[in-house]
Structure formats: C-alpha cells, structure tokens
Amino acid sequence: MAYDVLDVRPMTRRIGAEIFGVDLGKPLSNRQFEEIHRALTQHQVIFFRDQQMDHDAHKDLGRKFGNLAIHSGVPGLPEHPEIVAIHADANSKFVAGENWHSDLTCDPEPPLGSILYMKVLPDDGGDTCFASMYAAYETLSDRMKAYLEGLSAVHDANPVYKAIFPDLDRKYNCSTHPIVRTHPVSGRKSLFVNPSYTTHVAGVSKAESNAILSYLYQHASNPDFQVRFRWKKNSVAFWDNRCTWHQAIWDYFPDTRTGYRVTVAGDRPF
C-alpha cells in the first residue's frame, strides 16, 4: 500500500509500523491525516520518533481521530482531564497495563484507540508489547470460529480497580460485548476478550467459560502475533484498541518512566 507524504516502515508482517516524515506537534494536513489513519488501519499500532508536543497539541492530535474520552477508571491531569499521566518510579507498587489488555473494554463504548507520548525513560527496559487480535482470530480453526460466533463475554472493571483503590466506595463499568468483533473501518474480524477485564463468557457454565477463555488467552499471546516497541525519549505510540492487546513491561524498577496518554472515544462493538 503506497504512501505519498509519509514514510511508513512495517515492523513485522502482522502488526506494527514506524512512521517518519511528520511533526505531530503541528496541525496535520488532510493528506497526512489520511495516511496516518490508513497506516493505523493497516498496521494496528503505529510509532513515531523525536516528537515535540505540549498537552494542547497532544489533545489536538487525538481530536483529529474522534472525540476524546475521559478515562472511566483513573483521573486525568487537573488542568487537562483528557490526559492521563503514565508514571512509575522507586515508590511505585505497580504499573499501569502490566498485564495483557485492551483499554477499558469494560466501557459500553470502549475506546477507538490511545496515543501515548513518553517523556522520561530508563536507560534500558520499559518496552511495550502489542499483539494483533486479527491474527489471533484468523488463525483459529474454522470449528472454533463457528463456536465463538454469536457468543458474548462480560468485561468488568471492578476487580481491576478495586484491587488498586480498595478504600473507594465506587462502582466501575461492567459491559457485555461480542467475543468476535468486526472492525468498523477495515471490516476484519478479531478476538475481543482480554485477561485484564474479561471475567466470563455469558450463557455458558463457569467451567466451560474458564476453559474457553484460558485457551483464547494462551492462543492470542503467541509471539507470532506480536511487536515489541523500544521507547526512546519523545516517542509516540498510537494503537487501535479495537483489534489489539498491549502490555507494559516493568523491568526497570526503581528507575523512572513518565509519559502522557490521550484516549480517542470509540463505539459499541458489533
């Protein structure tokens, strides 16, 4: 697929591409936007190096792709509620996204995607892994695909956030979504369950649910479906939450890692 104004370099055959030749701190031209959107649709997660964005430019970039969503689990910055700080240091007891997940699948309308901008990084470590749920679905047997069609699963944020904030008397989002999701842009099918938020398959026994989800998680975490991104200062990752998993690697304790993320609102899975 040809690109005229951007240099798009695939990282693996199934997922991920680095993009060069664009300054994300400035307003995108219509052609730049179209090619970034096309690259995101094609490669599922895209990466940019050596970018300079303040918070307003970061939000403006996200708004090119849709309305910005306010995170339903954690607060944003006081002056910029659309931006969530991603931070870990010597005092951290956990890091956000340490397990495989898709962002906020507990929401009735999970995010389209997220744009993460990293500012402070350890000398080594702190990578993020991404996995293609297109590949995970497409490599299932025809019989497994037929079994999964029409099934739904429950995605519940309460076990996630109550473990982090046990003293808060708050109810978090819980939603039911199809296990096989059709992407609204590409039309491709993908698996839409993940180990962090999905609690059970609706309408089947607990034993059957556990067996099916265990198999799908093991299958979807195959390294053949993955790309691993090594961050550098001022790098940006933009992932399509509708067809990917991601996982932050916390191998840099007690060093500091700091970035900022905006989330682009999505729609109800179908």
Automatic annotation (TrEMBL):
Keyword rRNA-binding belongs to the record: no
Single GO MF descriptor: taurine dioxygenase activity
Gene3D superfamilies per UniProt: Clavaminate synthase-like
Claim: Oxidoreductase is one of the keywords in the record: yes
EC number: 1.14.11.17
Record keywords: Dioxygenase, Iron, Metal-binding, Oxidoreductase
Pfam families the UniProt entry points to: TauD (PF02668)
Sequence ranges assigned to domain TauD/TfdA-like in this UniProt record: 7-263
Similarity-based family: Belongs to the TfdA dioxygenase family.
UniProt name for this protein: Taurine dioxygenase
